[in-house]
Specification:
single chain, alpha/beta, Urease, subunit C, domain 1, TIM Barrel, 2 domains, four-stranded parallel β-sheet, 17 strands, 37% helix, 20% strand, globular
Length: 455
């Protein structure tokens, strides 16, 4: 280390590296040198000299990966965990279940922080979240140490009536949700530090009128943002848009100017061959919700969508936030579509989707998504000194096929340790759990009272 080189803040020493960088995808034993929140060096031997102020993390016995990028979540929906998974489509449209308009700001804070903490402890370092009260949800998640991006859901349907079977649109609702998004941009969009950020979130084609979607496009263009929306997630949505607008959801998004390389489309299950070609041609990004889709008995045509040109990224939606498990589900989804094991669907594909694919979808691939010199130091250390992770014959295959989020030992975001020994350092875990438990209990009491009132 020469006199001109900066003194490292941290060295992650002697771990096995899965970098997600095609230039150097794997190092059996590597040292990652960090300064100023960025990776300034990756090498296959220890530095000649260590400065006394440099923090050294012993990564022997660990596999080091980039932080995962989860491109489509609803952290507050942890309030319906263990119930929504077995209800079929759209618990949010069902009476007797807590809905997006139900949480108070305090309840939203508690549930969002639980969701953000869960994701972080499982190795996600950047989350893209959508739901209610994002003015409190984003900082609640960021307090855990995770990079928290998102937006309140933008819509002009009256969500307070949808679960009663009433679909009506009110331009005043659209004006308010757009205004809330603009305020969120002013307060939380941080393109320099990337601690928080805004990805505009029109809820879905069927909960937004075409006029509102055009207004979203204008706001997107004004601030140079990305769009995250549900696309063809149900037959209900597809049939509704066909009847209302005379086209498919992807055609509608193209019509209003939202179908391009800035679109993150969640689900994309019920798409025709022409829809697939349209999405691919636009260079849109697929937020593949493999576990959520298969739990409800459906599979998005990921093989065809990727073949058409969509970028594959992964997202947990409102299922539990284990991106390691999600890679397995995504791999199984692709193989089921082909009916066999092929070169097209191997562990490297879904690992890339969980890291660089997500960063690409977020427009952050120059900053995060791989262990690359110059990028932000977002790292995850998996403890591979466990029976289900040995032998180390093929490390990436082992991580994807038998690893778990619970194998995460240390998480580093922006060069700072935020999880150690599997436990968070920036928030009190038990306090987060207790606050979320209290909030969820209150939400379910109110939801059941409403159900009784309408019975």
């Amino acid at each position: 280390m020469t006199e001109a080189e900066p003194i490292p803040d941290m060295i992650v020493a002697g771990g096995t590296l899965l970098t997600s960088d095609p230039e150097l995808p794997y190092l059996e034993k590597g040292w990652i040198i960090i300064s100023g929140g960025r990776i300034i060096g990756i090498q296959d031997c220890a530095p000649d000299k260590l400065h006394p102020s440099t923090q050294v993390i012993d990564a022997s016995g660990h596999v080091v990966t980039p932080g995962f990028v989860n491109v489509h979540t609803h952290a507050i929906l942890s309030m319906v965990r263990g119930v929504a998974e077995d209800m079929g489509f759209a618990p949010a449209y069902t009476i007797g279940v807590p809905h997006g308009h139900d949480p108070t700001p305090d309840e939203a804070y508690a549930m969002a922080q639980l969701g953000g903490l869960e994701a972080l402890c499982f190795g996600t370092t950047t989350i893209n979240d959508t739901y209610c009260h994002q003015d409190v949800a984003l900082p609640a998640m960021a307090e855990t140490g995770i990079r928290a991006f998102g937006c309140g859901r933008i819509h002009d349907v009256d969500f307070t009536r949808v679960h009663l079977g009433e679909w009506s649109y009110d331009p005043k609702i659209g004006e308010q949700t757009l205004a809330d998004a603009a305020e969120l941009i002013a307060n939380f969009h941080d393109p320099e530090g990337l601690r928080t950020g805004v990805v505009l979130a029109p809820h879905a084609p069927d909960t937004c009128t075409p006029d509102l979607l055009r207004q979203v496009r204008q706001l997107r263009d004004e601030y140079g943002l990305r769009i995250n929306t549900h696309v063809s997630q149900s037959r209900v949505e597809v049939d509704f848009i066909r009847e209302r607008d005379g086209m498919s959801p992807p055609e509608l998004l193209e019509e209003v100017g939202l179908l391009d390389e800035r679109l993150i489309g969640a689900h994309c299950i019920h798409v025709s061959e022409t829809d697939i070609a349209r999405l691919g041609r636009a260079g849109a990004h697929l937020a593949h919700i493999a576990k959520g889709n298969q739990t409800h008995g459906q599979i998005a045509p990921t093989h065809a969508l990727c073949g058409a040109g969509m970028n594959l990224a992964l997202s947990t939606d409102n299922m539990h936030a284990d991106m390691v498990e999600l890679m397995r589900w995504a791999l199984a989804s692709g193989r089921l579509q082909q009916g066999k094991i092929t070169d097209a669907w191997q562990p490297a594909k879904v690992f890339e989707a969980a890291t660089m694919g997500g960063a690409r979808a977020m427009g952050l691939d120059a900053e995060i998504g791989s262990l690359t010199v110059g990028k932000r130091a977002d790292l995850v250390l998996f403890d591979f000194r466990r029976p289900h992770l040995r032998p180390l014959t093929h490390v990436l295959g082992t991580l994807v096929h038998t690893g778990q989020g619970r194998d995460v030992d240390i998480v580093i975001v922006n060069g700072k340790i935020v999880v150690s020994g599997g436990n968070p350092l920036w928030v009190d875990k038990m306090a987060v759990l207790e606050a979320a438990e209290t909030a969820a209990a209150a939400l379910w009491i109110r939801a059941r009272a409403e159900q009784l009132a309408h019975s």
